[in-house]
Write a structure and sequence with these properties.
Two copies of one chain form a homodimer.
Chain A (H helix, E strand, L loop, with lengths): L2 H21 L13 H4 L12 H12 L21 H13 L10 H17 L13 E5 L2 H16 L13 E6 L4 H9 L7 E4 L10 H13 L3 E8 L11 H11 L2 E5 L19 H4 L2 E4 L1 H4 L7 E5 L3 H7 L9 H5 L18 H35 L4 E3 L7 E6 L6 H18 L5 E5 L2 E7 L7 H17 L1
Parallel strand pairs in A: 2-3, 2-4, 4-5, 5-6
Antiparallel strand pairs in A: 1-7, 6-7, 8-9, 9-11, 10-11
Helix pairs in contact in A: 4-14, 5-14, 6-7, 6-12, 8-9, 14-16
Keywords (chains A, B): Aminotransferase, Decarboxylase, Lyase, Pyridoxal phosphate, Transferase
Cofactor (chains A, B): pyridoxal 5'-phosphate
InterPro entries (chains A, B): Aromatic_deC, PyrdxlP-dep_de-COase, PyrdxlP-dep_Trfase, PyrdxlP-dep_Trfase_major, PyrdxlP-dep_Trfase_small
Chain lengths: 478, 478
C-alpha cells in the first residue's frame, strides 16, 4: 500500500470510526450472534489475489459488526469499563505507523524514555509513593494486563525470597502465596504458571460484611506455613475487587507482610486510577509504607484503550534479576553501560510496542482536570443509580459502592434462596438478550447479585435512567 | 474528543504517517540520542489542563522523533524485520476504534471467530499440517510474541507430562527442558518463569558446521535424564535461529521426542512465514508427523505490525487444561455450552485485543500472491547481497543464508582472532553511528560476525547496493 493509498484508506477508516462513535448507541449492546455465525459468513479459504480495502470495510460491516459486543456502548455495564478515547486511538495509531519495537533502550530510546516519563507523570497524578518514581530504586512499566503484572510480581518475589537464584534452582521448599476468595483469578493462574501450584495458594478469610481480607487470618496462615517449612512468597491485596469492588485493608495487611518478610503486591486494576481525584486518594492507603509492587489499568477506567496496565515496583532489582537474560545478539553499548532501562527485563515477552504514546496522548489531551472529571462522572452516575435502587423497596442493594460498580437484585419476596438466584439469572439473561443494556452477575454473601459497572465515556445520566427503568420493568414482568 | 474532532485529528495523524512513510529514508537509521536526551526534553510534570492534539504532534516531531530508531527504514538490517504495512496499520486502527475485549467468545463473538478463521487461512497459506486447523483437535491463536508462545507451550507440556494436574501440585520430580546453544533466549527465560529452573535446561550439542541441533545427543541426554529420575517435558527445535538462521533437523528430532514421549515445540518465529512460498515449504518438514506446538511471527516478515505471533497446537486440551480458570463473574452460557473457544484459556493474560483484524486486512489486501512476492523479494535481495560478499576476497561469508539473513565479516588477514573480533565490532559501531544503515553482530563458529537481515517492505536493490558499498568503504577505512 503506497503512502497515497494509505492517505485515502486511512481517511475512510478514520471516518468509519467517527461514524461508529456517533451511532454506537443504535446497536444492541450484546451481540446476537450464535456460535458459528461469524465463521459461517467468512470464506473458508484465503484469497489468492489481493483485494481493495473497500472490500475489507464492506465485510467489516456485513460480517464482523453483527458479531460485536459493544464495549463502548453507553449501556455497556457488564464488565469493568474498557475505555477508549480519541487521543488514545490516535496515540496507538502513531505507534503502529512508526512500527518501532522497544525491547531495548537502543532499539528506540524514545520508546523507553517516554514510557519512563509518562509512568512518572501517572504516579504523580495518582499521588503514588515517591519510591515508585524512576529517580530512586523503583520505577514504572506498561504491561499488557494486570494478569501479567501479577505474574511478574510473583516472579520478582520468588527471586527475592530465594535469595537471588534464577528460576529457583535447587530450591526444594514449598512456596506459598496468599490471596482471598475475592482476589482476581489471574493470581491463581499466575501461581500455576510460575510453578507454585494451585495447592500452595492459601485463601485468607474475608470479613463477611465487607468481603475484605482479614489481616489476623493472614497472620495466622503465614505463621502456620512458615512453621511447617514453607517459604511464603507473596501476598496479594486488592483495592476494588472484580466481584464487588471490596477494598482489602492494605495498611494492616502490609504490617503483617513486613513482620513476615513477605512481598506485598497490591492489585488495584480497576479502582487504582480513581486516585486521580483527591477525594478518592484513600485507595492508596498503605502503599507508601508497605507495597513492593502495584498495578492499575488505564485501559479500564482512564480513557486509554487496551492494552495498558501501569505497574510500579519499589525496588527494580529483584524484577530485573528474575527476568533478565542477555544473549550475544542483544548485547549493545547502552545495555552494558547500565545507564539505561531495557524494559524487556521488566516483562514476560521480549518484544514490545510503543504503548507510552497512547497514555501520553491521553494525559496531554485531557490533563489532570479532564481525567478527574471523567472518574467523577462515573462515580456520580453510579451513586445516582445506587440511590434509585436503594429507594425502591422491591430491590436490595449492596451498600458498598465507592467507585462505579453497583451490585443489587430484586428482593424476590417469598422465594427460596436457590429460586431467587435462578430468577436473578433469568432476569439478567432477558435484559442482555434485549440488547438494551448488558450486565453481568456475581455471587456474594451467598446470593447471586447483578453487577452494573458504570464508566464508559459515552454513558450519561439518561443512560442510567433508561437502564434502571428497563431493569425494573423486566423484574416486574418476570 | 468528539467524533468531529476525531475526524479532524485522525486525518492529521494519517497524513503524518503517510509523510513519515515517504521520508523515512531521510532519517539516520539508528537514533543518535544519548541516554537521558529524550527524558530531558519532556516536562517533569503532567499538564493540569488538557492541550490540543496539535501540541502532541508538534512534540512528536520535536522530542520523540530524534529518539526513534527507524525499524521501517530501508537500511534497517539490525534485527529480524518488524514489518508494518498500510493494511496492518488500518486493521489495528479499526481494532482500537471498536475497543472490544475478546477474552471470552461472549464478549465479542467476531473477535474470536475471525481469529479462528484467519489462523486457519494462515495455516493453509503456509501449508501447515491439517491437524493444526480448528476443525480437529488442534487450533491456532494469536499471541503477543514467540516468547509467550514458548511459555504457553511449556505450560501445556508440563500439564501433559504431569498427567493433567494444575501447576504441578505434589510433583516432586525434576522437570527438564531441551534446547541448543542456538535456541532463542526466551526458552531459558520461559523455563525460569515456569519454575523449571535454568539448571534444568539441558543444552543439546549442535553440528559445528551447520549449528543445527544434534538428534543423537538429544537422544542421549533424554535417556540419561530419565534414568536419573527426571521428567523430560519439552524439546524446542528451531527453524531459522536468531543468530544465523540455522535449521534444526525437525524430523529426526521429532522421532527422538516421539520415542521418549516428550512434547516437541517448533519455534519458527522468523522463518516460518517463508512457507508461503512453495519453494521454501521445506521449513515445515516434520511438523505434520511430530510437532505438538508451533509458532511463527507475521509481525516479523509477513507485513503485520507487532504484536502478532501465530501459534498452533495439535491438541488444544493440555493447553486449556493448563491455563483455564473460571470464576463466577466470567461464567456465561456460551462458555458453559462448550461450543465456543474462549481464547483467554490459550494465553497468559486474561484480556485481549482484536488482533485478528490486522492479519485479516493484510491477507486480504496482499492475497497469497502478494505475500509470496514480499518474501521472495527479501530472499532474492539477501541472495544478491551474499553473492557480492562471496565474490569479494576481502570478506568471509557464512554460506548458509536460505532466508533474508546474511552473516559475514572482513577477513582481517593477519589479525589474531580476538583483534579480528574487536575490529569487526568497531566496524559495526562506525557503520551504525553513521546513520546510513543499522546492523548487529553475533558470535558463531568462535568468531564475531556481522548480521544483515533483509526484509523491510521498503528495502529494494538500491538499498542493498548502497549498504554493501558502505560496508566495504568502512572496512577499508578501518
Amino acid at each position: 500500500m503506497t503512502p497515497e493509498e494509505f492517505r485515502r484508506y486511512g481517511r475512510q477508516v478514520v471516518d468509519w470510526i467517527a461514524d461508529y462513535q456517533e451511532k454506537v448507541e443504535s446497536y444492541p449492546v450484546l451481540s446476537r450472534a450464535e456460535p458459528g455465525d461469524v465463521l459461517a459468513d467468512l470464506p473458508a479459504h484465503p484469497p489468492e489475489r489481493g483485494e481493495g480495502f473497500e472490500a475489507v470495510l464492506a465485510d467489516l460491516d456485513r460480517v464482523v459488526m453483527p458479531g460485536i459486543t459493544h464495549w463502548q456502548h453507553p449501556a455497556f455495564f457488564a464488565y469493568f469499563p474498557s475505555n477508549t478515547s480519541g487521543p488514545a486511538i490516535l496515540g496507538d495509531l502513531l505507534s503502529a505507523g512508526l512500527g518501532v519495537q522497544g525491547m531495548l533502550w537502543a532499539t528506540s530510546p524514545a520508546c523507553t524514555e517516554l514510557e519512563t516519563r509518562v509512568l512518572d507523570w501517572l504516579a504523580e497524578l495518582l499521588g503514588l509513593p515517591a519510591g515508585f518514581r524512576s529517580e530512586g530504586t523503583g520505577g514504572g512499566v506498561i504491561q499488557d494486563s494486570a494478569s501479567s503484572a501479577a505474574l511478574v510480581a510473583i516472579l520478582a518475589a520468588l527471586h527475592r525470597a530465594d535469595g537471588g537464584t534464577s528460576g529457583r534452582d535447587g530450591i526444594t521448599r514449598r512456596h506459598t502465596l496468599y490471596i482471598s476468595s475475592q482476589t482476581h483469578s489471574s493470581l491463581e493462574k499466575a501461581a500455576r504458571i510460575a510453578g507454585i501450584g494451585a495447592a500452595n495458594v492459601r485463601v485468607v478469610d474475608v470479613d463477611p460484611a465487607t468481603l475484605a481480607m482479614d489481616p489476623a487470618h493472614l497472620d495466622a496462615l503465614l505463621t502456620e506455613d512458615a512453621a511447617a517449612g514453607a517459604l511464603p512468597v507473596l501476598v496479594c491485596a486488592t483495592v476494588g475487587t472484580t466481584s464487588t469492588t471490596a477494598v482489602d485493608p492494605v495498611p494492616a495487611i502490609g504490617a503483617v507482610c513486613r513482620r513476615h518478610g513477605v512481598w506485598l503486591h497490591v492489585d488495584a486494576a480497576y479502582a487504582g486510577v480513581a486516585a486521580v481525584c483527591p477525594e478518592l486518594r484513600w485507595v492508596n492507603d498503605g502503599l507508601a509504607e508497605y507495597a513492593d509492587s502495584y498495578s492499575t489499568n488505564p485501559h479500564k477506567w482512564l480513557l486509554t484503550n487496551f492494552d495498558c496496565t501501569a505497574m510500579w515496583v519499589a525496588d527494580r532489582a529483584p524484577l530485573t534479576g528474575a527476568l533478565s537474560i542477555l544473549p550475544e545478539y542483544l548485547r549493545n553499548q547502552a545495555t552494558t553501560s547500565g545507564e539505561v532501562i531495557d524494559y524487556r527485563d521488566w516483562q514476560i515477552p521480549l518484544g514490545r510496542r510503543f504503548r507510552a504514546l497512547k497514555l501520553w496522548s491521553v494525559i496531554r489531551w485531557y490533563g489532570a482536570e479532564g481525567l478527574r472529571e471523567h472518574v467523577r462522572t462515573g462515580v456520580r452516575l453510579a451513586a445516582d443509580l445506587a440511590a434509585r435502587i436503594g429507594a425502591d423497596p422491591g430491590f436490595e442493594l449492596l451498600e458498598h459502592h465507592p467507585f462505579g460498580l453497583v451490585c443489587f437484585r430484586p428482593r424476590w419476596d417469598g422465594l427460596p434462596a436457590d429460586e431467587a438466584d435462578a430468577a436473578t439469572m433469568r432476569l439478567m439473561e432477558r435484559l442482555n438478550a434485549s440488547g438494551d443494556l448488558y450486565l453481568t452477575h456475581t455471587r456474594a454473601g451467598g446470593r447471586v447479585l447483578l453487577r452494573m459497572a458504570v464508566g464508559a465515556p459515552a454513558t450519561g445520566p439518561e443512560h442510567i435512567e433508561a437502564a434502571w427503568r428497563r431493569v425494573r420493568e423486566e423484574a416486574l414482568a418476570g
